[in-house]
Amino acid sequence: MNAHAKHSLADRAARKVVRRLVNLPAPIKRMLAGRPIVVDGQTLDVNTQIGLRLMHLTGIGDFDSIPVEKARAQLTAEAWIFGDELPIGSVEDITIPTAHLDLPARIYRPAGITCPAGGLVHFHGGGWTLGDLEAADAVSRWLAHHAGIIVISVDYRLAPENPFPAALDDAMGAYTYVATHAEKFGLDPARIGVSGESAGGNLAAVIAQTMARAARCGPSPTPVLQVLFQPVTDLSAKRESHRLFGEGFTMTEAHMDFYKRSYLGDNGSATDPRISPLLADDDLSDVAPAYISTAGFDVLRDEGEAYARKLEQAGVPVTLVRTPSLAHSAINVPNACPPAQDALLAAAEAIRPVLAYGVRSRT
């Protein structure tokens, strides 16, 4: 069966259009995109601007106003339409046992890697409500290939069917299982980090905090690095970036309101540090070193950068990199967005010494 047969004719046509647009000369791209979008002294990537025009014309991306199952299918389709099948040594679908269920997961191994290797346990974005392994495919491939590490991408239960703490329980269980069964995955237990994008970055940050607290009481498989792409760090407040980028971009204020309602359900509290890690009020000095990547055109920009400052003030080694022309979630489509390539390559360069070579992080 053809690998693309499972995709609709419309999706396959859209994928071809996207690839042709990406390869157009810069002047033609600018003509198609219209006048540059400049906000807060930053200019939006022209490819993203074209993508936004296409999304608005076709009506895709309105995740907060359509049935959740349709939104999930749409996001998975978008990941393929705009996606990037970067060649890599091997990709294997597996399951990881946790307390509640066996979670779907995918292992990315670069060609020629020597085991035991360093690696990341990675969690996809989607507001704890959307997203899957397909949505995280491009980021996982790029990090594995360019950092020279094994990446294990993990799925988790989604809200609103499974509100907080389901996603966190799954993420914690998956990370713990991988870290305590490192040899099963070809990993060096001393070189395992945790990573995630958006809601997945939130889960990764909470795992890093939780494991640090557990280690104060006894042996705990704490990550050696946390890699957070455009993370949600505070659902209790809206910062200036919400006002600046709350409408018309890839993540809107309405999207975030929808995700918040879905994830919190009836029992979650936005001030709970397990939901808003920025609000943790204990000593964070022993939390894993952090690499935090933010996007200029993102409602989450300011809270991600606030979290970097909080960790720095606690004495945690932190590298904060903002990609000014990048929009939220565009990190997942590096093939169609050069700034996403820049952000992923910068992350891989910082990850490689720590996880591939075991150099203690001084980020």
Could you tell me the number of beta strands?
A: 10
Poorly predicted tracts of residues: none
Radius of gyration: 19 Å
Gross geometry: globular
How many H/I helices?
11
Average pLDDT, all residues: 93
Euclidean distance between termini CA atoms? 46 Å
Mind summarizing the main beta sheet? 8 strands, mixed
- Percentage beta strand: 15-25%
Helix vs. strand class: alpha/beta
The percent range for helix content is 25-40%
What is the element string, with H for helices and E for strands?
HHEEHHEEEHEHEHEHHEHEH
The order of strands across the largest sheet is 3-4-6-5-7-8-9-10
What does the model show?
By secondary structure, this protein is of the alpha/beta class. 39% of the residues lie in helices and 18% in strands. It contains 11 helices and 10 strands. The chain has an 8-stranded mixed β-sheet, with helices on both faces. A two-stranded antiparallel sheet has the order 1-2. Helix 2 packs across helix 3 (46-58) and helix 5 packs across helix 11.
